[in-house]
Amino acid sequence: MFCLITLIVFSILGIFSASHRQLSKKAFDCVFKRITLRPCDTGFDKKIKGKIIGKILTKSTKLARGVYLFWEPISWVLVILMFVSLFFGAQTAYKFTRYQIEVYVNAQECASNSEDCGTVDPCNC
Amino acid sequence: MQTKHHGKPIIYLDNACQTLRPWPVINAVTDYYQNYSACGGRSIHRLGEKVTQKCEDARMAVARLINTKRKEEIIFTRNTTEGINLVAKSLGLKQGDAVLTTDKEHNSNLIPWQIAAEKFGIIHKIVPSQKDNTFNLEKFKELMEDLQDKIKLVSVVDTSNLDGVTNPVQEITKIAHQYGAKVLLDAAQAVPHRKIDVSKLDVDFLAFSGHKMLGPSGIGVLYGKYRLLEEMEPFMTGGETVEYSTYEGHKLLPPPGKFEAGLQDYAGIIGLGEAVKYLGKIGFKNIAEQDYKLNKFITEQIVEIPKLKVIGPLDPALRSGIISFYMEGIESHEIALMLDETNNIMIRSGQHCVHSWFTSRGIQGSARVSLYFYNTMEEAQVFIESLKRISKLV
After folding, report:
1. How far is A99 from chain B (nearest CA, A)?
2. Quick count: other Cβ atoms within 10 Å of Cβ B128?
3. A63: nearest CA in chain B?
4. Is A50 an interface residue toward B (CB < 8 Å)?
5. CB neighbours of B41 closer than 8 A, spacing ≥ 6?
6. How much is the pLDDT for A113?
7. pLDDT-derived band at A2, boundaries 50, 70, 90
């Protein structure tokens, strides 16, 4: 499931770089196969795995072994963490946007009637 | 190789796929494109004449390399695959004719015969190897005896790209000729590594590729005995294959002309000629010695790695410059990727276009190290250390 992370990362990078668009397409093909319960036969998942473990191997053989043996569970943990981060990130962005709007609206009302100026906590934060 | 990655040089161990090119070959190709990039064999101006001469010089060099009786027995192709397909399509095989190959053939020397069997009804039989992947001469003789009157062609690999094992081609040719069959050798892995003498071997056809012997990619050679080539119809015709044509007919050129249709890869031919000269300077004795020395050094060390299995005989003397292996618990592609990532080591992984061998044995694939004379002991040592580290992952 590491392809899911690479899909999101390369899709974002693909906004700025053509080579990452190609990679995001390969990641998409892989993810699509996995979510339709088929094995990913594009080789993309193996390439990513080989590259990452190869990089770790140059630093520590023990760590590389751990990552290699538990690749799938680690991938799932990272995917879940990614979605959790995305959720909280989206929630924060929503609350911040609401706060900004409430502050703006409050400032407008304050300008027309000074008695309404006061401390406002629109989001009950 | 000029390229470095993260400050480290590339260690190129994929020579069975294609070799690196020395400066004289690169310069010869560049010289053609920069200084006399014209059509050979057609244009009568001085540049055209120069190209024609250079190409004929290259043909002569190749003819001397494999000791043919005449240079007209050398046909320039794109690669070994095209050479084998040319024979498959032009030899005139018909329904009921039998062709024999081994169980370790590259797809280039398997698929054409399977298609011929489907389309023209030829009989295609396969000689199984021994347990250690060496040629089974007894089985071969049995099959030849069974096919007696029907056997028309024995098409075998000289040196396998899978495991580096060389077949006893002289013996095979002798037996084949006793039954009146012709012999075609896939010599793609043989010609770059040792002296091949087609006159001594008495083979009828031999195909090899320029890109596996320091030459440019896109150029290959098919050798054929002249009297056989004379009788064969070309499978591709057009410009440069005819003496003349009218609206009603044409007259084909004699070999090799009738087989070299269209504008040729002049840069490739000239580069190949230069590659042959370069190989002559290095010397096949030195090439074979270096192949053996490196293969022995690597084999002795990697057989100690647990869960690693070498394909073919363990004796490096029987495996040219090739070491094919697989490891339990790690896929061959992962091994190749990790070697690349850790130390810029380039090897091949997968089924090496010999899918049939792997699928029949239920083996997913192998990693293949293929050496050449410019590889060094230091490179071999780095490869061994990297592989040992990777083996610790399982």
Report:
1. 48
2. 14
3. B393
4. yes
5. B48, B51, B52, B55, B240, B264
6. 61
7. confident
User: B198-205 long-range contacts, Cβ below 8 Å, gap at least 24?
Assistant: B198/B66, B198/B67, B198/B68, B198/B223, B199/B67, B199/B68, B199/B69, B200/B67, B200/B170, B201/B169, B201/B170, B201/B173, B202/B173, B202/B174, B202/B177, B203/B169, B203/B173, B204/B228, B205/B83, B205/B87
Chain B hits for A68, CB-CB cut-off 8 Å, are: 393-394
The answer, for B350 touching chain A at a CB cutoff of 8 Å, is no
- Collect all residues of chain B within an 8 Å Cβ-Cβ radius of residue A43: 333
Residue B41 has pLDDT above 70, yes or no: yes
Smallest Cα–Cα separation from B326: which of B372, B287, B357? Answer: B357
Are the beta carbons of B338 and A57 separated by less than 8 Å?
yes
Is A51's Cβ below 8 Å from some Cβ in B?
yes
Task: Provide the pLDDT for residue A10.
Answer: 82
**The residue type at B331:** E
The per-residue pLDDT for A25 is: 83
Residue type (1 letter), A4? L
A64–B341: do the CB atoms touch at under 8 Å? no
B176-187: average pLDDT: 97
- Tokens for B176, please give them: 């084949």
* Residue B55 designated active-site: no
- Minimum distance, in Å, between the CA of residue A46 and any CA atom of chain B: 7
* 3-state secondary structure string across chain B: CCCEECCEECEECECCCCCCCCHHHHHHHHHHHHHCCCCCCCCCCHHHHHHHHHHHHHHHHHHHHCCCCCHHHEEEECCHHHHHHHHHHHCCCCCCCEEEEECCCCHHHCHHHHHHHHHHCCEEEEECCCCCCCCCHHHHHHHHHHHCCCEEEEEEECECCCCCCECCHHHHHHHHHHCCCEEEEECCCCCCCCCCCHHHHCCCEEEEEHHHCCCCCCCEEEEECHHHHHHCCCCCCCCCCEEEECCCCEEECCCCHHHCCCCCCHHHHHHHHHHHHHHHHHCHHHHHHHHHHHHHHHHHHHCCCCCEEECCCCCHHHCCCEEEEEECCECHHHHHHHHHHHHCEECEEECCCCHHHHHHHCCCCEEEEECCCCCCHHHHHHHHHHHHHHHCCC
β-partners of residue B185 are B156, B206
Say whether B341 and A61 touch across the interface (CB within 8 A). no
CB nearest to B334's CB, from A46, A61, A69: A46
